[in-house]
Amino acid sequence: MDFSRTVLVTGGSGFIGSHLVCSLVDRHADWRIINLDNLDYCCSPRSLKSVEDKANYTFIRGDVCNSRLLNHIFNTENIDVIFHLAAKTHVESSFETPSTFQRVNIDGTRVLLAAAHQARHQPQLFIYVSTDEVYGASLDEVFDESSLVRPSNPYSATKAAAEYLVRSYWDKHKFPVIITRSNNIYGPRQYTEKVIPRFLTLLQMNKKCTIQGTLPKSRHFLFVDDAITAFLLVLEKGTVGEIYNVGTGREIPIMQLARELIKMVKNVPEPEVNDWLEFVPDRPSVDLRYPIKCEKLQQLGWRAQVSWHEGIRQTVKWYRDNPNFWSDAAEDEGPIRAQLTNAEHTRVSQFIILVGPREGSASLRPKQSRTLWIFRC
């Protein structure tokens, strides 16, 4: 089948990436969607079960820092659009292993940009998905896209550094890039280290919600469907070289969030809510809030459509219906990972494994719809 457009999504097996991939595959049967992901601990192939057998979907298991793999993909697959989501995102971990965040978030972006820019078939657009955390904390300022970038932790610092790399390709080469900076995105399939699924998982295990520190932290939460709509709108109507904030005016104190979830999950009256709260030491360098303006995106026609009440209802229902999603995913990943580690040219179930660079410039085009390509370069 000939496709009218080829889209590469890095980090497409993660929480946001999997929702983006599923949306692209389902909406655009005439587009070929390639998902490049190394299946880190917070990713699961189960998140893409609904599209894994679709003819316009291809999964490549690989590292975004692997320059030989990236060059091979861009020189054989005629990539038209890149959504770059692959990143390490857990703020607490960024203090413990900052070099890992630098490698993936900065070096991975550098490798991807270089491969895309040097490709024989020039991409039409490179969309870098960043975060509102690059602005740093605010007590009263509401950030727009021209606000100063003042990251306050290793994670946001690496995202800001990657943004500068992306911008440099536009400034020097006029390579077509767009940057998005989004609020905290939540919804089904999010890994349990993030605050909403962490609270839900603890409550499902009959454990208390752990509140980090006593400072009045709050976050603006954006439902994942609204985020995906924004990314797709930027793809079609965004202006190259621009930055777009993606967010909502719904600011929710973390304490209020915990109390709401306790009532929804445990169905307890107000006087008993405190029994399900536990205060623990705070993480280092905590930002209290990240308010942003989204007027530029709204001028393109975007508005958040999912209310907080509806979004959190859907999220709670999904975690209630799928209590073992992440534990089962980890168990499933074990034997698959072992088989792939020992594989050279081997069929595993319906997957085809291609180990490079022996294949030279052979195309990655699938020999069947559900295809996994592994590169050891």
TrEMBL record:
Task: Tell me one GO biological process term.
Answer: nucleotide-sugar metabolic process
Enzyme Commission number(s): 4.2.1.46
- Name all NAD(P)-binding domain ranges: 8-315
Q: Does the keyword Nucleotide-binding apply?
A: no
Alphabetized GO MF terms: dTDP-glucose 4,6-dehydratase activity
CDD domains named in the record:
dTDP_GD_SDR_e
Co-factor requirement: NAD(+)
Designated name of the protein: dTDP-D-glucose 4,6-dehydratase
Q: Which species is this UniProt entry from?
A: Larimichthys crocea
